[in-house]
Amino acid sequence: MKLTVTRAFGAYAVGDEITDPQEVRAVLSSDNAANVVKTLASAAPPIAK
């Protein structure tokens, strides 16, 4: 799982992706959990159309 920032906080801007597992846990257990959305981490890059 990764997090995508929806409201800027700390060093993160809107649209930033947080992928480090320790940082994901830290953000989700903080007041900043409301500033991110959970998304699935992609194992493979998207296929070009």
Order of helices and strands: EEHE
* Average pLDDT: 92
Please state the CA-atom Rg, rounded to the nearest Å: 12 Å
* Number of separate helices: 1
Overall spatial form:
globular
- Percent helix, as a range, is 10-25%
Instruction: Specify the biggest β-sheet.
Output: 3 strands, antiparallel
- Structural class by sheet pairing and helices: alpha+beta
Strand order of the largest sheet: 2-1-3
The termini sit apart by 25 Å
Task: Tally the beta strands.
Answer: 3
Low-confidence stretches: none
Tell me the number of structural domains. Answer: 1
Which strand-content bin applies to the residues?
15-25%
Task: Explain what this protein looks like in three dimensions.
By secondary structure, this protein is α+β, with helices and mostly antiparallel strands. The protein has one domain. It is 16% helix and 20% strand. It has one helix and three strands, in the order ββαβ. The protein has a three-stranded antiparallel beta sheet. The protein starts with a strand and ends in a 10-residue tail after the last strand. 6% of the residues are buried. The mean pLDDT is 92.
Summarize the model shown.
The protein is of the alpha+beta class and 49 residues long. Helix content is 16%, strand content 20%.
